[in-house]
Design brief:
The protein has 306 residues and is an alpha/beta fold. The protein has ten helices and eleven strands. α1 packs across α4 and α2 crosses α3. The chain is globular and about 75 Å long.
Length: 306
Amino acid sequence: MLNLERLRTLDALARHGSVSGAADGLHVTTSAVSQQMAKLEREVGQPLLARNGRGVRLTDAGRLLADHAARIISQVELAQADVEAQRGCAVGELRIGAFPTAMRGLLPQALAALRTAHPELRVRVREQEPEESMAAVVRGDLDLALAIDWHNKRMPVPAELTRTHLLDDTVDIAVPAGHRLADRTGSAAASGISLAEFGEDDWISWNEGQFCHEWLVFTLRGTGIEPRIAHIAEEHHTQLAFVEAGLGVCVAPKLGRGPVPSGVRLLPVCDSVRRHVYAVWRADADRRPSIRAAVDSLRQAAAGLR
């Protein structure tokens, strides 16, 4: 009899391509991965891994069994979804990943309502960037993720996932109080300001390689601006602190914004810059009442923000 947890370990090895990657994905040590694989090799009676330089690779038998393992794990998840659906109530554990502004501006309201409506459902939340959380849902490390893309740059969603739109989040441009455009507020800014007017400015952006950083560079170049990224800061509140100090300008989404420093002015953009916020989950978990309950709570919370 093949052990399901060992098959999960083999599946993680096949997807990540290394013992360390599998260990990270499974949240265990590399020693635990090696031990599970040694036991699985004894169960099947042949080698599943072979040395490949400093790392390992799957043998022919390993690849064959890994293909079966992926299908078995998917079937187990379908079975769990069906059993949960048969009970008709949201119980057990639900793991959610969300990007920072959704963690502040959307999840607290949704989770409070979810706890009241479904007290037997235990929710665990992890803050992650959308690319990471969607990959975690595909792997089965998360059950649900909140993700974003932009009106002019969409983020690909893996075929294994289902998604639903929650809200559109408009953004402003944050500038220092002494900025040359800072007086464009109130009625003077009713029609918004063009991104092309920021061609002389330094920008405070997200980490290079992140989807939002790539979007900013892509969007500014689309207006004829070669972006001058002067500073990198992960958190929006940190970016706003840099803006207040006169070190540049930044994008300021409305979702989860919170208090804005007194030395910062917010300028609406006439190009209607907006982010699409949505929830994603595995298609084979679509029947789980806990997923449906969480999505319903997220929709209700999002509706209150519009």
